[in-house]
Amino acid sequence: MTTTHGSEHAAPFWFTSPGGGDSLAWVALGGLILALYGLVVLYASFDRWAEQRAHGTPLAKTIPTLLTIALLYEVFPLGHVSILLPLSAILIALMADWARFHVGEGPAGAPETRPHDTAVATGPETAHD
Predict the structure, then answer these.
(1) Can you tell me whether residue 17 is helix, strand or coil?
(2) In angstroms, what CA-CA distances link 17 with 9, 11, 93, 95?
């Protein structure tokens, strides 16, 4: 004996029967991709702004790196990430700044020639002076 009840509920609008198309999933996937793209654009503009503000300082690469790490810790729950990852990024930035500060750059990015480099390059005649 089967009886039919007239009080059946209609399926919700987001329900998709097996084998049917799911347009809401495609919309959600597109929204997720746009959100990730927006996050990358915001990160790039923030990094560019921080590097412009730090231009001319001895820590021109370290300051944007520190600000980026602080931004990432504020936006994302990075408690599961090892502390060695941000520390290594900071050390790499410090080494880049140290190398730039001690080597020096010319106007086109080429290393400048120092006075003691020319004395060595000219030969033994200038060494006796």
Answers:
(1) coil
(2) 15, 10, 54, 58
Largest CA distance in the chain: 117
The pTM assigned to this predicted structure is 0.45
From 39, 63, 42, select the one nearest 52 (Cα to Cα).
63
Do residues 61 and 96 touch, judged by C-beta distance below 8 A? yes
Selection from 95, 94, 114 nearest residue 104 by Cα? 114
pLDDT digit string (tens) for the chain, length 129 residues: 455 555 678 878 777 778 777 888 889 999 999 998 998 898 888 878 877 887 777 888 888 888 888 878 877 777 788 888 889 988 998 998 888 877 765 445 555 555 554 444 554 555 554
The one-letter amino acid code at 32 reads L
Residues 6 or more apart from 47 whose CB is under 8 A from it? Answer: 64, 68
CA distance readout (Å), 19 to 10, 12, 22, 28, 64: 19, 17, 9, 19, 50
In the chain, beta strands by DSSP E: none
Q: How many residues does the chain have?
A: 129
